[in-house]
């Protein structure tokens, strides 16, 4: 993510009623970097992201989120703009702090403040980024759901 200008997350899901949980999450150890939550009780999606070591959130009201039907969700982040499509219809556009740009700046700050006597070539990558589907981590925020499986494509 740190080397990318744009990122899009696409998910097809069917949510159980009276459930709140994480649909998609990227964590760094126990800290969330990006997370999409759904609440059928409040009929909303929540997008959480980390910027300058703080967690920010955007909330999107979606009345039909827990109607026992399959839905498609896409969230695109391009610099400091977030676009949300629900069932292939553009529903929201928001200006946000750029979590992608922040990742680049954080990497630069860490390398500038390196006080170790080891050369960077000998260091191991200490990032612990983990992708979670249907939960925030091994024990947290389980989403009662069904996901549709699709072929994954990576575009360089």
UniProtKB/TrEMBL annotation:
One of its GO terms (cellular component) is extracellular space. InterPro entries: ConA-like_dom_sf (IPR013320), PKC-binding_NELL (IPR051586). Keywords: Glycoprotein. One of its GO terms (molecular function) is heparin binding. Gene3D superfamilies: 2.60.120.200. It comes from the Eukaryota. This is Laminin G domain-containing protein. The lineage of its organism: Eukaryota, Metazoa, Ecdysozoa, Arthropoda, Chelicerata.
């Amino acid at each position: 993510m740190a080397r990318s200008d744009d990122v899009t997350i696409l998910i097809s899901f069917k949510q159980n009623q009276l459930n709140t949980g994480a649909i998609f999450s990227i964590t760094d150890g126990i800290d969330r970097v990006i997370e999409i939550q759904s609440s059928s009780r409040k009929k909303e999606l929540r997008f959480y992201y980390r910027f300058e070591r703080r967690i920010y959130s955007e909330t999107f009201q979606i009345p039909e989120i827990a109607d026992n039907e399959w839905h498609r969700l896409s969230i695109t982040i391009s610099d400091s703009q977030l676009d949300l499509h629900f069932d292939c219809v553009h529903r929201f556009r928001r200006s946000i702090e750029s979590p992608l740009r922040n990742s680049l700046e954080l990497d630069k700050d860490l390398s500038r403040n390196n006080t170790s006597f080891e050369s960077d070539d000998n260091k191991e990558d200490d990032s612990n980024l983990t992708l979670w589907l249907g939960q925030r981590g091994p024990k947290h925020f389980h989403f009662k759901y069904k996901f549709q499986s699709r072929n994954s494509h990576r575009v360089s």
